[in-house]
What does this fold into?
Amino acid sequence: FKKGVPATLAKIPLRCKTGRPTLSPFPCWSLQEEGNCAAFQSVVDLFLDPQDILWVLDTGIVNSLEEPVRKCPPKVVAINLKTGK
It folds into this structure.
């Protein structure tokens, strides 16, 4: 939503020894590249179905809180959480 945010979809570890968990890009860094329409641009909604498919809604718009720019068309992406694909 803002410049300087490196990932639009991230995961947080459930167990953190320090008490200060670190967000990690999900599913990987290569899917967090601004301007690459095969990657995520601005994830705004998630839905997990009974088959463990994570449905991801990406608007394709970056910097939406300041000066919105459409980098890519909107898309819905399905990620199988059992296989990671």
User: Anything to note?
Assistant: The chain is about 0% helix and 30% strand. The mean pLDDT is 93. The radius of gyration is 14 Å.
